[in-house]
Amino acid sequence: MERNITVAVDTMSGDFGPSIVIPAALKCIKNNPFVSLILVGDEAELRSLLRNQPTSPRISIVHAPDVVRMDDRPSHALRKKQQSSMAVALSLVRQKAAHACVSAGNTGALMLLARSILKTHPGVDRPAIVKRIPSPKNRCYVLDLGANVDCTAEHLYQFALMGSALVEALEGKPEPRVALLNVGEEEIKGNEQVRLASRMLAECESVNYIGYVEGGDIFKTIADVVVCDGFVGNVALKAGEGVVELMIGMVKSMFNRNWYSRLVGYAALPMLRKLRDLVDPSRHNGASLIGLQATVIKSHGNAQETGFLSALEQAIFEAQKGVPEMINSRLDELI
User: What pTM did the predictor assign?
Assistant: First the structure.
């Protein structure tokens, strides 16, 4: 049975702010009768945008006078932006007024504020951003995707433990295969942090470590969890999404070339829609910030309405499942 879930939404962050968050929130309320949303941001602006929309008792507003800008330094946001929509939304989760938080804002600031306000699980230094990568068979979870640009070998080791615990909790898969992302599969490849993390994982009996994988292996079924630092992970994710968008554009262009290609495209429409649903990044928007004591979902900063709705749905799913509690319970056994 689905339990009632409340999500605190940082409406002011990201490239487009409340202009895309409000329609996504209204659609989310319509699709999920057991969900309530707390919209956090400039109250006057939010009420203005909601003025001509259907009212719902499941939508409330909490005023926040400040915003974390995309070019704010994370340390500056931590010191000076405690009244921002991002910080206030996270505080609502800490106060148990909401089960989860969603933000499209500054990734580094979200990581620092979430770590400060919600705290990490004992034994975890930093939360990491993780996302399930679409693939034809099975699923591959990749972390970190941008929360930690600089990582030590110990951080990579902790990410591997968290990723393994996540897959066991979400997929019910015992001993998921864990790999490190590297520039080759040989032992001598990679920088010092990656080689040291590899040795630490090879000696860890709690993780099913299978060694190195390369970038193209993320989209295959070689590993269930792929670990890297946030710089490499973010570049790999954005490059993959760029290729998908390029391919979608090329397919559309090919089928619109003449009347015969349009006829062929019409015949192939069901298959093309299925393929689009599998790989379109906007339909899989929403990455989890794991290692925290509560659910926090990071949306793409440039997400449109469909993408932000996907991030809201991800937060609802994880809050319903109690994902942080499941991961932390497993980490207690691993650490």
Answer: 0.85
